Amino acid sequence: MSHFERLHPSLRQWVWRQGWPSLRPVQEQAIPEVLAGKDVVIAAPTAGGKTEAAFLPILSEIADDPGRGVKVLCVSPLKALINDQARRLEDMAEAVGLRCQPWHGDVTQGKAGFWKNPPEILIITPESLEAMLMRRVNKLVEALASLRFQVVDELHAFFDSPRGAQLLSLLNRVDQQIGRRVPRVALSATAGDLQAALQFLRPGGSESGAVVEVSSGGGELKIGFMTTLRELETTPISLPSLPEETPQAESVPVPGWSDLPPPEADEPPEMDPVADHLFQCLRGRSNLVFANARNRVESLAATLAERCELAHLPQEFFAHHGSLSRDHRTEVELRLREGKLPSTVVCTSTLELGIDLGDIHTVAQVGPAPSVAALKQRVGRSGRRPGAAQILRQYVELRKRKNAHLIDGLHLPLLQSIATIEGLRAGEFEPPWTANLQLSTLTQQILSVLVERGAMPAAHLHRRICAPQGPFARIDAGRFAEILRALGANAQIEQLPGGEIALGEAGERLTEDYRFYATFVTPEEYTVFSASGKRLGTIPVDDPIVPGQSLIFAGRRWRVLNVDTERLTIRLEPGRGGRPPMYASGGMNVHERLHRRMQALLLDDPFPAYLDPKGRQCLADARQHHANTDLGTPGLYRTQTDLILALWGGTRASTTLAIALSGRGVEAMPMGPFVLVPAEDAETLAAVIAELIETMPTQSELAEMCPPLAEEKFESLLSPALISLAIGSRSLDREGAMRALQRLVE
User: Which of 293, 669, 725, 730 could disulfide-pair with 436, CB 3.0 to 4.6 Å?
Assistant: First the structure.
């Protein structure tokens, strides 16, 4: 019997009705693995048929199941993905007489009758599932009594994140509530170490799981490259003191080469050559332009829209990011999906995931992509039609300062952009970071389980939340007790006379707030309206905005009519000039593999064939700068003001070494592949490095050196020592730092 013949007859007919000549390889290969009841990770390019690969065998398995209630629990990271997935599954499910219910905060249809007659397929966000477990757990357990599969959409979106830990904890809690282990099927469009992805799906428990992978990334990859170099009149930048509040390398980018402000929005049009080039190359088709920060998205989208107005052309350039209103984002997504009008959308990672956007012709990346995996996901948006090429246009914006720092001459954004593309071409992707203890999410889950289950002994609570096959398995009883003491100290929990742990008064207040369900911080924001009352989005309240000011928002230029600081609202009317809102943004956490690729580019003679003339010249200049300074080789180098430790070991390794040096009394600042130390500390530095090579502090000792400044949502409920431990687990790479130190002395 062929794999196709193992599908339910009604689903085989459904496949024939789609006009498919055959199943895709990923769909064929997934059938026996899913039907075997294994944990399965299915990886294929965007629009590669992953949804059908998972659900054809799943629906075949449950089609004739007599049990009542939800048979498939599908968790997805985005509301838009849930809506899209529900649309795609509805027809397939109907073929075998099954129903599908999307569930998130914006859905109303179907919720009222859900509890009386649960559909067989529930597609839900982690936050909504959290709310169900806390508020309606008895009804949820009844609805899930016949659950057969747990499905995770866009698995890679959950890696190394508070939401990922929350997701895995929620799936474990569902297993505990229904009293059995339910098979997990995960979908991922990004290639990489899929065995690591399988371990992430069920930590320590997926040894018998399966990986189904189709490595083809679609059609031919065509790459265009544009480099701009802008000279700035500035004075050299000296090494600042290590700020106590900044333990992470990605939060302290190198002045002069990374995280520089974009071109001012009110500059003449000719001052933004990237916008000029995008306008010339992308008009008339559907395209995506990824920028690394919301303010760059806004300035670029507004400049492109202005180009249309000046040329008296219909508008086809739009902005898309998480601070814009749901209605705005939905309209933009629908315009792309329908494909009736040319549309170029400038966006952040909001359009990186697998929402159906129709036929995307070109993907542009402004600045280095955050990672090779992210670039793979983004490029996969194009070239979906059979035989169509995937098209990437990479833009690198360099800044050149007179009397700049020695590091500036390496043109690091250019190196990173090339290294990311070369990693993509070689199929080498960053593995998930698994050392993060996720103490913020653990804190949330402790309080949530106490709402779900009521008071219980501390040992029982620990066994439930820190189960061997869960995201918190590394938290032993002693560390768990330390967390409970911290929560008890601020009345989040209390110990009853019988010794059981229960919610405290402060914990009851916290868990009653709907914002508790999310693991991410929700900043205080203004809600922004047009003069006609249309909701446009949100702006942080710490952005000093005043009436009469010009502002760029939603890819258009506005004048601020009024700012209501009590109701937290801003009203806008069309205007000219202005700047984007001041959104907070973290820097990139660059993996060691990418730093080593960047380093290799300084040592190699060939030039990538796709480089533009300016890019070739800047890479040649960077190689000459390395030949003059040797900065591309691990070692210690001196300037008039600084000592430069060239590590090329990943930003976590740089941060770790800076923390270790600071702990030994040497002022140090992590700067991407480098660590900078004041020149006057030369003698001390040599001695301390020798000590660290001999006896590097343990991970716990390094974590204790991290300033205890709460960054994630629930960390403020913990003790300073636990906050430092949490920061260290996600920001420090002791092994990477030791490897980097060894390279220094080789």
Answer: 730
Question: Which stretches of the chain score pLDDT less than 50?
Answer: 235-270
Residue 725: both structure tokens together: 């431990």
Kindly give the residue spans of alpha helices, DSSP state H, lying in 505-605: 505-512, 592-603
Domains of the chain: 4-213 (3.40.50.300), 221-426 (3.40.50.300), 525-574 (no CATH), 634-745 (no CATH)
Read off the pLDDT of residues 205-225 as tens digits, 9 standing for 90 and up: 767 899 998 865 556 899 999
Q: What are phi and psi of 476, to 5 degrees?
A: -80, 175
Q: How far apart are CA 536 and CA 538, in angstroms?
A: 7
Residue 547, SS3?
coil
In terms of Cα–Cα distance, which of 488, 373, 391, 388 is closest to 433? 373
Contact 160, 139 (CB under 8 A): no
Instruction: For residues 445 and 518, give the distance between their C-alpha atoms in angstroms, rounded to a whole number.
Output: 11
pLDDT in tens, 508-546: 999 999 999 999 888 889 999 999 999 999 999 988 899
Tell me the pTM: 0.90
Instruction: Specify whether the CB–CB gap between 162 and 519 falls below 8 A.
Output: yes
Structure tokens at 13: 């007919």
Cα–Cα–Cα angle for 36, 38, 43, rounded to 5 degrees: 110
d(CA 448, CA 511): 7
Give the Å distances, CA to CA, from 20 to 6, 12, 16, 370, 447: 17, 11, 6, 36, 49
CA 542 vs CA 525, 526, 570, 715: distances in Å? 8, 9, 13, 22
What 3-state DSSP class applies to 57?
A: helix
Residues in a beta bridge with 493: 503
Q: Where are the alpha helices (DSSP H) in 95-230?
A: 111-114, 126-135, 137-143, 162-178, 194-201
Separation CA 9–CA 25 (nearest Å): 20
Q: Where are the beta strands (DSSP E) in 283-323?
A: 286-291, 317-320
Distance (Å, rounded) from C-alpha 663 to C-alpha 349? 36
Total length of the chain: 746
Q: What is the pLDDT of residue 234?
A: 54
Q: Let me know: does 200 contact 362? Beta carbons within 8 Å.
A: no
Which letter does DSSP use for residue 158 in this model? G
DSSP per-residue string spanning 487-528: HHHTTSEEE-TTS-EEE-HHHHHHHHSGGGG-SS----EEEE
Q: How far is CA 465 from CA 78, 209, 453, 489, in A?
A: 25, 23, 12, 21
The single residue listed with the structure tokens 């999906």 is: 337
Looking from the CA of 646 toward its CB, the CA atoms found within 13 Å total 20
Q: Which of 17, 14, 16, 43 is nearest to 29 (CA)?
A: 43
